[in-house]
Every structure is written in C-alpha cells, then in structure tokens.
Amino acid sequence: MSNTKIKLVLGLIVLFYACNTSSNKEKKAENDQLKAPNVIVILLDDAGYVDFGFMGSEDLSTPHIDELASAGIIFTDAHVTSTVCAPSRAGLITGQYPQRFGFESNHTGDQETGDIGLSEEVNTLAEVFKQHNYKTAAIGKWHLGAKEHNHPNQRGFDEFYGFLGGARSYFPMENPSVEHMLQHNGKKVNFEGYLTDRFGEFSVDFVEKNKENPFFMYLSYNAVHTPMEAKREDLEKFKNHPRKELAAMTWSLDQNIGKLRQKLVELEMLENTLIFFLSDNGGAHNNQSSSGLLKGWKGNKFEGGHRVPFVVSWPEKLEKGRTFDGLTSSLDIFKTSLSAANISVENESKLDGVNLLPYLLKKENGSPHENLFWRKLEESAIRKNNFKLIQLEGYGNVMYDLSQDLGETKNISSEKVDVLNQLINDFQEWEDEMMKPLWGEPRDWMDVTYHIHQQLMENQPVYYQSPKEMKQHQQKAQNN
Questions:
Q1: The domain 36-360: what is its CATH number?
Q2: Using CA of residue 404, residue 375, residue 42, residue 221, what is the dihedral sign?
Q3: Is residue 153 classed as helix, strand or coil in its secondary structure?
Q4: For a Cys-Cys bond, which of 64, 247, 284, 353 suits 331, CB 3.0-4.6 Å?
C-alpha cells in the first residue's frame, strides 16, 4: 500500500474516533443535563453564627466546610423559623411556619398532651421526593416525634439512621430509651466510637449505594449540641484551645462533611448535587459558641437566636465564590429543592418559603422575602425589610433598624411610629392565620426565657439562663 493510501486510511480512522468521541461527549452532556440533581441538607445543631472559617472564625478549624462555602453561595441574611431545635426542624422539613400546625414550642409535646410531634396533615420534603422516585435518607437527630406515625420511615424516608429525641451522648449508652438509642429503620444499633463519625460514615455509604439513583439526604447532625463530648485524640489536638470541647467537636464535624464531599467528587456526582448547609438555630449559651456581633443566642428572638450561617452549593448551575444579601429563610429549602428537581409543588399556597433559584441565577432581583415571623408562646418577632420588632407579652416591644444597628442596641419605636404600627399590624395578620400551640414548655423555663428577653430589650445584664440559676439568683436576692 502506498504512503498516500496509508495516510488516507489513518486520517479516516482518526476522523472516525474524533466524531465518535465528540458524539459520546455530547450524549454524556445531554444525559447529565437530563439527570435529576441529588439534594443534601446538612443541618447542624446549635452552631454559633461565626464559628466557621468562612464566617470569620479565627480559632476554630473548618477547612472542609470552608471549601464547601467557597464552592457555593454564602447567605448573609438567612434565618430559621424558630430559635429552638424541634420547631425549627419542623419548619425546614415542611416548608411551612410550624405555627400553622401547632408546632411552636420545643420538643414534641408535654406531660399533659403526650407526644404529638409533626402533624399528619402536612407533607415532608422527603415524602414529595419519594413520590418522584428519589431515594431518601434521614441521618442523625430527628426530634419531630417518637410515635410510630412520626417515625422517619413513616414520613418519607427510606432509610433512617439516627435517634428520635433531642439530645444524647456522643458515645455508646447503656440501656438507652427508645428516644435515645441509635437505630437503623427502627432496629437498635450497638455502635463503637463517636456518634458524629458514625453519621458521617452512613452518609458516605448511602451515596455509594445510591450512585445510580437521584437521592435526597437529610443529614441532621446533633453536633454541636450539648453534652460537650469529643474524641480523646481531638481533645488532645486542641488541648490548649480556650474552647477546647467545641473546637474538637467542630473539627470532627468538618472531617466527616469533608469525607461526604470527597465521595461525591470520587463518584463524579458533586457537580449535580444541590447542597444546603445551615444550623437549626443560633448558638446555645452553654456550648461555648459565639454569635459575634449579634445580640442574643438560642431561645430568644434577637438575631443571635435565629440568624444562621447558610450556604447553597450546586456547582453545575450556580456561580461559586459569591455572597447573597437578600432576606432568606430555611423555609425556602423546600421549594428550592423541588424546583431544582423539576418537581411541581402541590398545594403551593400552603408553603411559606420561596424558590431561591431565580435569585441565585440572577433572573430576579431584590429580596426573596419582605417579611419573616417568629413566635414562641410569650415572645414573638417580625422582620420587615430592614426593620425588626420584638414583642414580649405583658411587657412591651422594641424595634430596630438592622441596616444601621445589627447588634440591636437602639430602640427606635418612638422615632418610627408609623413603621412600628405597620409591623404590629403585619404580625397580627400573620398570627390570625396560625394555630394556637398544641403544647407548651415548663413554667420555670418560660420564666427564664422571659427574663432573658426583658433584660436584653433593656440592654441590661442577664442574671440567669436556666431554672437552677434562677433559683440561686432568687435565693441570693432574698438573703440580701
């Protein structure tokens, strides 16, 4: 065969493979475009507002969480629906204000009512995803009801690996209650080691097992809620740290979130995975957390109670490395997730959240919300644009302009009477749509919360933060 013919044949072969490769790439791109995204909600427990590198922390080490934030969009004005764990989770998982179905106080019932939990009249995000052929998993803390009808496996989750109650030890317990035992789909799990690691491992395994299916994962860590317990080696690593326990617990969280993200990278799934990262409320007074410049903490209506670190990452769709300043809420996770999966929302009028994607894709300008509302028994608040009203039943109210006073120190209610009246009216209209709470909280805890609100409203020191401290303070006052 002549050199000319050989060159011609080789050229045809090269052209054939080039066309075939190009065609395969186009098909792969088309398939990737059509493939439904995976959705992961990473929810932390009682995390401080500034206790991550991407939020400005200089003493806590969070490299993997910071990497997640740098690959996504950081929200600067994001909030949850409640300043305590259970109702905050209820709002996130249903996309509705929990007050709409009576889930207003912490926990899932009281001594008088028994365990009520999450209303059977509302849908969870998992139930909707499951109806559309997603594999679903809840991992970690549940705290939305321990009765059979409220078990995660009955609320849309194919897999549940976690515990039903509000808090427990991070290490194995002898004879734990049903609410506190680690379980997998209702069956008790005897485990070794550290609970945060076990949750992290299960999250990685779930991704591996469902790499061929679209999935929704609700990864609900109980860290950094009390008790302040960490692994020995992590405590040793941070032995000279002023917040040793919190630093060690946060480090473990970060390592496990890093392992999950690395698994997504290995399986080439990260690009088409929508990830939300946030805390269920502000940092607690007893877990060494920091709210930075924000006033208040878990349990009260100041910004430190409900403004949370919030990241959204979806590398295939969303521009990374930027911030979003619009007023947003954990309520928005429901609609945003379903929109990303191209799932229409039934009874959309009952949802209180907003689809964030048009804002994040810069197809819409402005703020997703004009108003946000909070209420827990005797304390309530409303946010309207940059104005914030806090009300304490039987005491009064204070109003702040957060654009000028993020620390909530200057009460401007007497200077902006028209704005004050508008906020009061808006809150009343919202409240008229809500249910009365189906259960309450112990009177001694309500008295503590009342004291904290009153003192902070007056910019005065808080003298006690628990019923035990309240009794000690009262006895000391009597003795004097």
A1: 3.40.720.10
A2: positive
A3: helix
A4: 353
Q: The pTM is what?
A: 0.92
User: d(Cα 336, Cα 128) in Å, to the nearest integer?
Assistant: 13
Calpha distance 200→183 (Å, rounded): 15
What dihedral angle (degrees, nearest 10) is formed by the CA atoms of 331, 336, 341, 343? 70
Q: Do 228 and 245 contact (CB within 8 A), yes or no?
A: yes
68 closest CA partner among 103, 40, 30 = 40
For 209, residues 6+ apart whose C-beta sits below 8 A from its C-beta are none
371-479, CATH topology level: Arylsulfatase, C-terminal domain (3.30.1120)
455 CB-side CA count, 13 A:
15
For 270, counting Cβ atoms within 10 Å of its Cβ (0-12 exposed, 13-18 middle, 19+ buried), the class is: buried
Cβ(128)–Cβ(338) below 8 Å: yes
pLDDT band per the 50, 70, 90 thresholds, residue 6 = low
User: Would you state the structure tokens that stand for residue 256, as one six-digit string?
Assistant: 């496990």
Q: Between β-strands 273-279 and 38-44, what pairing exists: parallel, antiparallel or unpaired?
A: parallel
| 392-431 exposure pattern, b = at least 16 Cβ within 10 A, e = fewer | beeeebbbbbbeeebbbeebbbeeeeebbeebbebbeebe
Residue 307 carries which DSSP code?
Answer: B
pLDDT in tens, 239-291: 999 999 999 999 999 999 999 999 999 999 999 999 999 999 999 999 999 99
Alpha-carbon distance of 480 to 476, in angstroms, equals 6
The residues spanned by each domain of the chain are: 36-360, 371-479
Angle at which helices 244-266 and 63-70 cross, to 10°: 50
82: left (phi over 0), alpha (psi -120 to 50) or beta: beta
Q: For the chain, give percent helix, strand, coil, nearest 5.
A: 40, 15, 45
Tell me, yes or no, if the two domains 36-360 and 371-479 fold the same way. Answer: no
DSSP string, 163-209: ESSS---SS--SS--TTTS-EETTEE----S-HHHHHHHHHHHHHHH
- Nearest residue to 36 via CA among 212, 160, 250: 212
